[in-house]
Write a structure and sequence with these properties.
The complex is a heterodimer of chains A (about 110) and B (about 110). Chain A has strands at about 5, 10-15, 20-25, 30-40, 40-50, 55, 65-70, 75-80, 85-95, 100-105, 105-110. Chain A has about 110 residues and is an all-beta fold. With about 110 residues, chain B is mainly β. Chain B is built from no helices and eleven strands. In chain B, strand 9 (about 85-90) and strand 10 form a beta hairpin. Classes of the chains: A mainly beta (about 110), B mainly beta (about 110). The interface of A and B includes residues 43, 45, 94 and 100 of A.
Amino acid sequence: DSGVTQTPKHLITATGQRVTLRCSPRSGDLSVYWYQQSLDQGLQFLIQYYNGEERAKGNILERFSAQQFPDLHSELNLSSLELGDSALYFCASTGGGTDTQYFGPGTRLTVL
Amino acid sequence: EDQVTQSPEALRLQEGESSSLNCSYTVSGLRGLFWYRQDPGKGPEFLFTLYSAGEEKEKERLKATLTKKESFLHITAPKPEDSATYLCAVRDYGNNRLAFGKGNQVVVIP
């Protein structure tokens, strides 16, 4: 158990809909990272937050957005969903002087 | 842009048959190379971090090594429970993100 939690575990929705994925980092970690994992692309970095502020952006679509709240949990919002957004979404956290990213169990999103 | 290539993509081993996985990388300035293990449908589990050429780390049947261009993950006398996808990732000095390879899928047959 990495100490990073993600909810929900599974999400099934229809094209055009909007969903929110939630992540709670390890206790004391200030940085949260979001990654998308699809069969053909592997793990792709989406976005990073540090103590409530956006720090880095990767291959994140304009339909996707994220935020980190004062209690340090983070949410990833996906809107106008397309079939191709079906994937595993992971968050990871770091902190305490280490640069090792510890990953959560992921949310499996299926868009029908 | 950081690039990570892992080979072989898939590997079937008999129990006890040692082998090595390769991770080749291109990065402007290596801040760290990371190995993770991932079981199907689960999150990546951290194994090792290597920072400089010549460094080695060991954990049970796994040993990771690093050169200036590649890293190897050696699996000695594997057991069926070592079956997993092993992911390699690099981080450079320019940013905090990890750039991942597509993984080495290992199956150990009893």
